[in-house]
Design goal:
The chain is α+β, with helices and mostly antiparallel strands. The protein contains nine helices and eight strands. The protein has a single domain, classed as Peroxisomal Thiolase, Chain A, domain 1. Helices cover 34% and strands 22% of the residues. This is Beta-ketoacyl synthase-like N-terminal domain-containing protein.
């Protein structure tokens, strides 16, 4: 049996955090530029109409901002791509509000907040806003599990896959059990290897991933994925992502 990991092309990249609100800004920070002043605390993805942008939670906005940027970078119509959305916790601010409301005044529970509390909220907003009819997958896990899912979909015939990782802040009591800070989203459009674009292959192994050293959203639950984006930005050949207790995902990179 051939056990050589398949090579996957990286066709587009998107990233947003208040300190570096684009892939270009993130690369500039890695080259020594100053961090942004975080004056803009939430993105405004053009894909969403203004009313939807006002109603959508921050986690949805950052996921869609990164996803749209990756599709533009790849030159892909978002409506044509299957998607994988991966978030460790979903939207904890809404979860905290729902728990407080249920405990104090359950009849005042907001239908809109409940609608936005489900873990596939970002995937739902994305498919509606982009008109995508392709399958959308939502995973509660580390970014490495989303990457494995996307690679598996490509290996089984998908012509391309949009992968989006994101997390937000934990408020109140939830911070004690689900520590995460700031707002971070990043996305890749993956497909067959293409000349002039980087390629990756992945393999699982026993081990412990290095602690994140990023200056970008260091307290965010999805910050470990930035090891891969840093490697892409700097032209490195290897990145290690956490993949559960005692497991890591090795990502080998080739840059054309």
């Amino acid at each position: 049996m051939n056990r050589t990991p398949p090579s996957v092309g990286i066709e587009g990249i998107g990233l947003w955090t208040a300190q570096a609100p684009s892939w270009a800004a993130y690369r500039a920070v890695l080259q020594g530029a100053a961090l942004g002043d975080e004056a803009v605390t939430r993105p405004a993805p053009a894909l969403l109409p203004p009313n939807e942008r006002r109603r959508a939670p921050d986690t949805v906005l950052v996921a869609l901002e990164a996803a749209q940027a990756a599709c533009i970078d790849a030159g892909h119509d978002p409506a044509t791509l299957p998607s994988v959305f991966v978030s460790t916790y979903g939207d904890l601010a809404i979860t905290e509000n729902l728990c407080q409301t249920l405990a104090s005044a359950p009849l005042e529970l907001s239908p809109t907040r409940f609608h936005n509390s489900v873990h596939n909220a970002a995937a739902g907003y994305w498919t509606i806003a982009s008109g995508a009819m392709a399958p959308a997958t939502a995973i509660s896990a580390e970014f490495s599990m989303g990457l494995l899912e996307a690679v598996a979909q490509l290996a089984t015939g998908a012509p391309g896959v949009l992968l989006v990782g994101y997390d937000g802040s934990a408020p109140g009591l939830l911070r004690q059990v689900a520590p995460t800070e700031g707002l971070l989203g990043a996305a890749l459009v993956l497909g067959p290897p293409v000349a002039g674009r980087p390629r990756l292959s992945v393999s699982l192994a026993d081990g412990q991933a290095p602690a994140p050293t990023t200056r970008i959203a260091p307290g965010n639950a999805m910050a470990p994925m930035l090891a891969l984006f840093e490697a892409l930005a700097l032209g490195a050949a290897h990145a290690i992502l956490p993949a559960g207790d005692g497991r890591v995902l090795h990502v080998e990179l080739l840059h054309d």
